[in-house]
């Protein structure tokens, strides 16, 4: 659940490669206990003094959300993500807190859960009740400029079979309140208990899509037909297609790698839709099974290829995705960035694997949190957007 303005809203020239933007959600941590701390409103107020509404509140007061402006390329997106993460981290430090990128809280919380004041959050609590208990999760959302809503809902048909792979690549939530849950993305499991949340259904047209959302709202399985929480949706307020399935990565370079792959997938699908191809009618149960397997195993591991039903290594599926979207990646100079992301996955695994490696070093969950906080805030020196050493990575010091 997000609030406030979203990225990728700048108009693209007709025929131009579309802008993209990213929203990221972070936990606020007490640096002593490493537990999440419910002081989001205070951190947001401080951040707004420097970056305005690019830092906002979230469903739980122990979270904040950051937003980039529209970006043309991966280098620009990297720099914007580093800057806004830095602003959020600086505001948190001013309140005696830290920020941390993980899909679920690694350790417990200081005090009771406090739901944010946004009317939509309050309405959701009234409608879904105790189902929202423990719904304290952090995601990354990628927006791609796509103002034609008819095209956008059909592009969703093409993107839908690839969503489980995005879960596996971004999986970064193995721990919850001090316990290893046995899954790479426990955030995905938490989301799966809700009706009308997850992969969108196959639709034949925008009119079909709107009939479905209206029926789901009437059934009360969906809060608002204009704001579905499916993992691919035309944004209800902005001319973008929004992909919402990923855990938030700790490494900003991984967020960028995911974003450029997603933009290439949307561009490739858009071209097919305009040629009359409405997308594969992938079985919903197969997609659901693929989500579950990706959430359990993450990367590396094997997963269900929702296009064929075969169980394949995630690396094989990712290589197929790159080949599928290669022309779009090459068109805007994103191929090296996408391949670099897959290389990092091959070398160190997904975020869940890195969290568990941190824990195994000494058996202390505090080490997991500290490693996540360092990566979230300071990144890796020399990993700048344009391939040059970055002077903006360590933005909260000095």
TrEMBL record:
- Answer whether the UniProt record assigns the keyword Ligase to this protein: yes
Q: What class of enzyme is it?
A: ligase
- Which parts pass through the membrane? none
What's the Enzyme Commission number for this chain? Answer: 6.3.2.2
Reactions the enzyme catalyzes = L-cysteine + L-glutamate + ATP = gamma-L-glutamyl-L-cysteine + ADP + phosphate + H(+)
Stored Pfam families: GCS2
Q: Which GO terms describe its molecular function?
A: ATP binding; glutamate-cysteine ligase activity
Where do the record's region annotations for Disordered lie? 377-398
Task: Please name the InterPro entries in this protein's record.
Answer: GCL_type2/YbdK_subfam, GCS2, Gln_synth/guanido_kin_cat_dom, YbdK
| Keyword field contains Magnesium | no
What family does the database annotate?
Belongs to the glutamate--cysteine ligase type 2 family. YbdK subfamily.
Supply the name of the protein: Putative glutamate--cysteine ligase 2
Question: Which species does this protein come from?
Answer: Streptomyces glebosus
């Amino acid at each position: 659940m997000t609030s406030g303005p979203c990225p990728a809203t700048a108009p693209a020239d007709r025929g131009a490669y579309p802008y993209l933007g990213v929203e990221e959600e972070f936990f606020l941590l007490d640096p002593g206990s490493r537990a999440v701390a419910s002081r989001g409103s205070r951190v947001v107020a401080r951040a707004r003094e420097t970056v305005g509404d690019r830092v906002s509140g979230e469903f739980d007061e122990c979270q904040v959300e950051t937003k980039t402006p529209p970006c043309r390329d991966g280098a620009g997106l990297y720099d914007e993500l580093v800057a806004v993460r830095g602003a959020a981290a600086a505001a948190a430090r001013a309140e005696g807190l830290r920020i941390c990128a993980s899909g679920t809280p690694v350790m417990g919380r200081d005090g009771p859960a406090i739901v944010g004041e946004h009317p939509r959050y309050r309405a959701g609590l009234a409608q879904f009740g105790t189902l929202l208990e423990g719904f304290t999760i952090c995601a990354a959302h990628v927006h791609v400029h796509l103002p034609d809503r008819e095209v956008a809902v059909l592009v969703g048909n093409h993107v839908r079979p690839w969503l489980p792979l995005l879960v596996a690549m971004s999986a970064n939530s193995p721990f919850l309140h001090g316990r290893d849950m046995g899954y790479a993305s426990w955030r995905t499991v938490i989301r799966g208990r809700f009706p009308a949340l997850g992969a969108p259904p196959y639709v034949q047209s925008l009119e079909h899509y709107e009939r479905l959302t209206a029926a789901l709202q009437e059934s009360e399985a969906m809060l608002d037909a204009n704001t579905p929480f499916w993992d691919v949706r035309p944004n209800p307020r902005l001319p973008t297609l929004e992909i919402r399935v990923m855990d938030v990565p700790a490494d900003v370079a991984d967020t960028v790698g995911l974003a450029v792959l997603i933009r290439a997938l949307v561009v490739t699908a858009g071209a097919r839709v305009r040629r009359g191809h409405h997308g594969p009618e992938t079985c919903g149960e197969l997609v659901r099974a693929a989500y579950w397997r990706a959430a359990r195993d993450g990367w590396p591991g094997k997963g269900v290829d929702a296009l064929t039903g075969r169980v394949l290594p995630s690396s094989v599926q990712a290589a197929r995705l790159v080949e599928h979207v290669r022309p779009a990646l090459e068109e805007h100079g994103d191929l090296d960035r996408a391949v670099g992301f897959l290389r990092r996955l091959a070398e160190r695994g997904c975020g869940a694997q890195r969290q568990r490696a941190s824990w195994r070093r000494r058996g202390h969950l505090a080490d997991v949190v500290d490693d996540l906080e360092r990566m979230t805030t300071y990144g890796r020196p020399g990993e700048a957007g344009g391939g040059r050493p970055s002077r903006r990575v360590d933005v909260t010091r000095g």
